[in-house]
Amino acid sequence: MGLTGQQYKQLRDALVEAFPSQIRLAELVKFQFGKNLNAIAMGDDLDAIAYRLIQTAEAQGWIDKLIAGAREANPGNPSLFVVAQEVNLAISLPSKLSKVGGLERIVKRTNSFLDVNQWREKLGIIEAQVCRIEITKKNNFPSSFGTGFLIAPNVVITNYHVIEPVISGKATPSNVILRFDYKKLPEGKVINPGIEYRLIEDEDEDENYWLIDQSPYTDNDLPTIDELDYVLLRVGDADGKPPGEQPVANNLPNAPKRGWISLPEDPNYEFLPNTPILIVQHPDAQPLKLAFDTDAIIDINENGTKVKYKTNTEPGSSGSPCFDINWNLVALHHSGDPSYNPSYNAGSPFSAICRRLEKQGLLEELRSGTAMW
After folding, report:
1. Cα–Cα distance for residue pair 99/294, rounded to 1 Å
2. Cα-only R_g, the chain
3. 34-76: per-residue pLDDT in tens?
4. In a 3-state reduction of DSSP, which class is residue 176?
5. Gap between the Cα atoms of 182 and 218, Å rounded
6. Is the pLDDT reported for residue 262 higher than 80?
7. Distance (Å, rounded) from C-alpha 211 to C-alpha 199?
8. According to CATH, where is 2.40.10.10 located in the chain?
9. Superfamily of 130-260+362-367 according to CATH
10. CATH class of 277-356
11. Which residue from 24, 48, 232, 281 could staple onto 317, CB 3.0 to 4.6 Å apart?
12. Nearest Cα to 215, choosing from 234, 202, 231, 199?
């Protein structure tokens, strides 16, 4: 990967902004890449040190890892996001947003009071909270993929139909991998294989300990409150540590925690026709992409359990979070038009999901910000 002159300057300025002291930059280089910053550049001029670091990384062939590692250490920094997006190391944006000024024009047309840097910062944080769900083979059952996201320190939500192979016994809980931070260049080079988390099992007491709650799907266009196509999964690393409480960059002491996407507080979100829906997803098991449509919402059904929209998705996008233009979580994507006519996609509104969670006695604990053991 080679950087243009403008990208050199952007990356230098972004590194200095994100790591505003020599010791912070030295920690990044040591803990993320096992290298000594003083052996690369010395002195008191942080701009010059950052520039020399970029030169060295490019000459030695790890410039892509420098950009990806810097973002892991500071995922919410909008300047690092812009650099990473230009070289295809941030969440992939639609082409109309990737063009110079495109995001600013679209966001400002949709909401003139929205700060674009804050918009990018929030997207960078969300990026670390969404995972690819992989269900590996058992006997002759083929591997399958979906998307999920954290809504509490150790709770991932996705579609029931994504996890149905495990619930039905075609796969086991140990066949499930929840992979965060997966990064790959367009030519196929994997920059970051991601961090794997697993379903937490309790073999001595409850074989379904990993399954906190489930609401199956229906083909009916008017689902009941118990047919919302979601599951809540109890997850952790090999030691059971909650992913939301772990640093995004495990090796860096000052890296921010991964966090989670908070459940909406407003039980009466209004889905207005012809307003935006943004979907953060792993389509076709690829690295994260953002689907964006400013004229997305078609309608919501009579009992508020299904919202239809035009925002694009692909296989593997099931279980993705849907947001409004201000990054408020509004729906869980689950399907497209069952007639296979690409006229709409559909999701379960979180207002309906929260009503069911309250009925199940789970909502207060999920909103508490503590792990659910």
Report:
1. 16
2. 21
3. 999 999 988 889 999 999 999 999 999 999 999 999 998 999 9
4. strand
5. 32
6. yes
7. 8
8. 130-260+362-367, 277-356
9. Trypsin-like serine proteases (2.40.10.10)
10. mainly beta
11. 281
12. 231
